[in-house]
Give the backbone structure.
Amino acid sequence: MDNLINFAPLLGRGVLVTISVAVLALFLATFLGALGAAAKLSPNLAPRAVAQGYTTIVRGVPDLVLILLIYFGGQRLLNGAGGLFGASHMDISKFWAGVISIGFIYGAYLTETFRGAYMAVPRGQAEAARALGVKPLVILWKVLLPQIMRVALPGYGNVWMVLIKSTAVISVIGLGDLVGLADKAGKATRQPFVFMAAVILIYLAITWVSSQMLRRADTWANRGQGA
Amino acid sequence: MNFDLVFKHWDLFLGGIWVSLHLTALALFFGFLIALPASLSLSRKSRFSPLVGAYVYVFRGTPLLVQTYLIYYGLAQFDFVKESWAWIFLREAWWCAVITFSLNSGAYTAEILRGAITTTPKGELEGAKSVGLSDRQVTWLVLLPSAMRRALPQYGNEVVFMLHGSVVASIITIQDILGVGRLVNSKYYIAYEGILAAAALYMIITYLLVRLFRLIEERYLKHLNMDVGKARTLPGTIEGIPAMR
């Protein structure tokens, strides 16, 4: 127990790293998901094929494999490109490698979430707005988006819950996130059980708080919908 | 890029495939054995429900990697574990992985089955009772077969996610597909090839599994008139995501 108190600041830093990676990855995933959904709904074949390839690859391969590929492969690519311009050796930051990998992976899942939500909005909504002479961008922003958000929220919440757990794997490339730091502390103090149990409790706390916030967001998004 | 090294070590990769599939199959098997009573207890509010609920919540709410660390590195902290008979298993990375993955899969599967059990149409159970089946018969002959059929699409996702989750084994020194890929990478100081080969293998196995489950669904869900092919074309569509790790 003493060890846990001594290492509390370290674990606190780990929690901050984990949450920052997760939140930044969620932003990237949201962006990629919106882009992917738009591509999948496009009338043109090329963007549809690219988006299909993206979601197919990501969902066929385990997260850790993609993280290693992006981290080590990205390192090579960066140095190769840097070498062409005469730059010296550069290191990819583990933090950003984690953000990019996790964001890339969950962007594929959000692509499906957003696409499904878009298709759940009745066509008449956009048609009515167009009949009134509303401009396309305004239709998207003021008519479709609020409804898409409402439908997509439960799926979005699920992706967040899975994403935050998925960040644990980044410790494998040596990032000092909650899991990585707790692992080190556990080995240093020879009390790995105590530290891993603490990590489990912290993750449970994070998922619990998230689920409460999501429930509130869901009530808020469905206000005026009756029952 | 040079894939000669990958092909040169095809036997290693074949071993890795076997290890990954074996591990996944064991976890799914034991997980299912855990999930059956757990889901029944959850759907019926028995005396054990709070305990079972806590088990499911903890294993679904935390990363598989941390669970594996807790059992593989964590339990070795205690002398009484090291002195007990269980140490024969718990000192081996393989058995630690089997135990953790089974408990993990058990929690996810229990939740999937619980969902299917609670959405069983009332008339099915009333009909069974009215023809004179005992409670036990209703459970085993009507409720579970019907629930398990309807759980098939989500269970297919669980199978794929368990395969994907099993990469955690490579972190605790087990030579699964990813483990072999990383071994080949570090042996020859290459950046992509080993892991790319692993990625391709995972992808092939994933799509074979998806195919297999689509066939099973076509066979067992035909009477429900569900549009099987369209209902789930890939693992992890919207309704499948809660089953992820």
The CA atoms of residues 116 and 147 of chain B lie 5 Å apart.
